[in-house]
Amino acid sequence: MKPPAGCGTPRPARSRGAEPMANENGWLNQYINSLPERGWFKFLATRVVLPYWIWRDPKPKLMGGPRISPQPSENVQRMMNLIMPLRDSSPIGRAKAALAIAQNVDEIFAGLDNVGTVHFARFLLIDDYICMISVYDGDFSNYIRDFITTIGSVFDAVMSLVEGGDDMIPTERNVEKFIDWVQAHDLFQAPDFPTDLFGLQDGAKGVTPNIAPHELASLPRELILQLHANPNISLGGGYRAYPGVSAAQVRSKFGVGW
Amino acid sequence: MTADVRTDEVEFNVGNIQGNILRGYRRNFVRYLMLEVTDRSAARRFLADSVAGGTSNVPGITSAVIWKQRPTYCFNIGVTCDGLAALGITQDQLATFPTEFTQGMARRAMKLGDFGDSAPENWPAPFDQPERVHVVAAIYTDAQQDLDALQDQVVASFNLLGVRNGRNLAGNKVFFGYVDSISQPRFNHVHDPDQIGVDEPIDPLGTALLGYPTRYERVRFRIPEPQELGRDGSFNAFRVLAQDAAGFESYLDRAATELLAHPDVDQLLTPGEEWRIGEDLDRHGALREIVAAQMCGRWRNGMPVASSPDAQQPDPDNPVSLTNFDYDRMSRCPAGSHMRRVNPRGGPIVQRIANYTRRLVRRGMSYGPDFDPANPDDEERGLLGNFIGANLGAQFEAVMCDWLNLGLQNPDVTGSNDPLIGANTPETSWFDLSLKNGGTIRLRGFPRFVTTRGGAYLFLPSLPAIRHLSELTD
Predict the structure, then answer these.
(1) ω before B226 within 30° of 0 (cis)?
(2) Is the ipTM of this complex over 0.85?
(3) Which of A95, A103, B373, B411 has the maximum number of C-beta atoms within 10 A of its C-beta?
C-alpha cells in the first residue's frame, strides 16, 4: 500500500509486527473472516465451545426490569415486559385468557388510574405466553404492590391462567411472593452501554462490580453466555420521546387531573 | 394497654412484643451494640436468659407490657438475615423472609439513595462487613454510667464489632435545630399517653407487626416461617445518618442572602413581619428560618408550616396543634418539604390509594458532640435512626425511593429530592418555596446534608420468637 503523500508531518515508523496489515485481503484473513459461516465451525461453536463455557463460567439469570438509577430522570417512564407462561396455550386456553382480560378491562384500567404512575399498559397473547407490557414511573415493587392492593381480585383471575400462578393466589395475601415472581418474569433489560453487562454479571454473582477488570474482547462471549441464562431479553431500555417526565406531569400539563 | 385483645380473629398479646416497637421509651441515652455470633450455643443461652426476664448477668428483654415501676434500663434486640442463619435458622426458612431483608441494607443501597459518599463501600466499621453484623442490641437508660456494665454482660456471649452511643439533645431537638419526635403512628389496641388528642387516623396493628390487618384492605404481609418465629415480629431499618449541621446553617445563610435580592421576596416575608418568625431576628435571619421551615415542613420550634405558614410564633389566642393538620392543594407547606414527602397524610398524592399506607414508626437519638451554630465545626454528628414497620419494601423503601427521593407523589416536585435528607448534589438540587400569592421561588445548588454512615435491616423478633431461636439445637 502506498503511504499517503507527504503532508509535512513525519510518518510514524512502522514496527515489523504491523506489516501484515498490507496483507488485509490475503487468503488467511479471508478464511478466518468466513469461519462464522462455515458449517464445521458453527457445529464446533454451538456443540462444543458453548457447552464447555456454560460449564466453565455459568451465568446466574439476571433480574428483570429496569434498574434504579441515581439520576431522577432515569427513574420515570420505565418499561415492564412481563412474560407469563400460559397454563393452557391451546386456542381454548387462549380464549379463556382473552375473556379474563376482557371481562376485567374496566377494573384494570381503573386500577391503573388509581396507581397513578402508569403511562401505558396492554396485554398480549404471544405463542405460549400472556404478556403485560407497560410503562410506569418509579419503583417496580411499589407499582406492583399498589396495583395488587387496588385490583387484587383481577390479578387472581390473571394468575389462574398462568403456570405456577396458583401459589400466588390470593395475591393480596402473597404480596411479597408475587412481587418476586413478577420480577423474575419481567424481561431482563440489556444495558444501554454494552460494557455495563460486566458489572451486572459481577453483581449477580455477589462480587463487587468491576473490581476485577474485564477484558473488552470477552464481551461477546459474556453476552452469549448471558443469553443462555436469559434467552428472552429487552434490548436496552427503549426509546422515550420526552424523557424524564412522569405520567402525573403529563396529565398535569394537559389539565386532565392527576 | 389490655393484655389480650381479639383483632380480626387473631389474639394480640402485648407481652409477646418487644417494647421498642409500638411506643418510645423516652430515655436519655441509648447504646447500640453491633454483635457477631461466634459461639452459637453461648448466643442461644444468652437469648434464653434474656427472654426469660434476665439474670444478674444477662439483661432481660423489655416487652410492650406497661410497667408498674419504671425499670432502670430497657433492652431490645434486632437480628439481621445473616444473624438468623448464624443462630441456626435454615435456608428454607430464611427464604420465607422478604427479599429486601434477606439481601440486607447494603445491597439495597441504590434504592435508598445510598450512593456517592453514602455508598456502603464508604461505610466505616463495623458496617463495612455487613455479613458479620448479626445482632444489633440496644440498651436504653437514663443513667449513662449503667451502659458499660450492661455492655459487658452482652459482650460475654457475642463478639462485639462496634458501638454507637446516642443521646437526647436538649429540648428534643436534632442537630439541624428542629424539635423532633412529634408525630408517630397511633395503633389500634395500644394506649400511648403521648398520643392523646392526636386526630390522625388510627393505624392497624399490621402497620408495625406481622400477622395483623394492614392499612391496605385485605392485604396481609407474609409471616415468615416457622410461625412462632415470624408472628408478632417487625422489621427495622437501622441507620447511622451523619447530619452536616454546619453545612446546613451555612446554606441557610447563602439562601437568605440570595432571597434578599429576589424581586418576589416580599411575598415570602412581608416587610415588618420579621417578629412573627422570631423576636430578635433581622430580615436575613427571618428568611433563614423561613427556608428552614419550608424545607422541613415544620418551623424549628415544631410548629407545622401547613397550619402556620407565616409565623413561627402563632397568635396565642388561636393556638395551633402540633399534630392535627392536613395538606390540600392550597396548602402553603411545600409539597417538596421533608415532612410532606415522608408522610403526605390525607393530602393529594399521585398514588391515590397510597395515603397512610407507608406509615413508619420512627425512633431516633442523636450521636456526636453538641453543635453550636455560632461556632460551627465539622465533627461527625447525626442521628441513630430506627424506621420500623411490618414490611420494609412497602413502607421504608417505598418512602425512600419514590417519595423522599424522586418525588413522584406530586408532579410539581417530581425530579427533585428531599431538601433536608435527600440524595442531593449542588449541580442538580432544587426546591420550591411557596409564596403568599400562590407563586414559588426556586432554590438551587444545595448539597446533601445527610450522609449514610452505616446501617442494617433488622428483624425484631417477638418474645416467643427469641425463645424459639434460643431453643434451636443443631
Answers:
(1) yes
(2) yes
(3) B411
